[in-house]
Automatic annotation (TrEMBL):
Source taxon at top rank: Bacteria
Name used for this protein in its record: Uncharacterized protein
GO BP, sorted A to Z: response to hydroperoxide
GO cellular component: cytosol
Region (Disordered): 1-21
InterPro entries assigned: YaaA
Natural source organism: Labedaea rhizosphaerae
Amino acid sequence: MLVLLPPSETKASGGRGRPLDLTTLGHPELNPVRERLLSALTDLAGDVPASLEVLGLSERQKDEVARNAELRTAPTTPALRRYTGVLYEALDVPSFTRATMAKAARRLVVASALFGLVRATDSIPAYRLSGDTVLPGVGSLRTAWKPSLPDALAAVDDLVVDLRSGSYAALATVPGAVSVRVVTEVAPGKRVVVSHFNKAAKGRLAGALAATRREPATVDALAKTINAAGFTVDQAGPRMLEILTDHLGR
């Protein structure tokens, strides 16, 4: 089983790892695109006003541009400790046992605009790049990743649980993946997708799937695994599961 997570716009600062080395990251077939995007992003960082405009940042977020300028020299830290925000707070990596972290290293992968796919233990620097960004000299990230990312995902033999958000799911489809949406029941038989709590629920789900001793290989087995972890789950389609919550995310 492979659980495909969205990244977060916010990243933890610092780190104790050596500067970025693409040869240490998983999926080395993605390195040519990674190198191209790194160069484009660091070059863009040389023009702060242009960076703010392209990245959709405010004047108060100039520090994000400074991060991008130092991508090749900044310290790194494992991906699951680099990404922050609601989903990753709910994932609660600090609570992982050694055994859970070992399973997370095999099962959890982050869909990254800059790196394509990042394993849980891959050491990366802090950066700012969203999935819907159009980079000067590169164009849309969907176009940039098209030659290699879809093939990398299609080559995954395990059952893929796709928890990505829209702009990252648009970078490449995953044949046969199981999608998960978080819903609440507003009236008998009527469900709506939640907003804010969606991220928290998916973070808790990812943590549960990282820790489980089960190895689901089918949608039915996955649903049973999720139920066993304490969630209420229904199959809403051939490859779609719904997690039922009483939170509206407001």
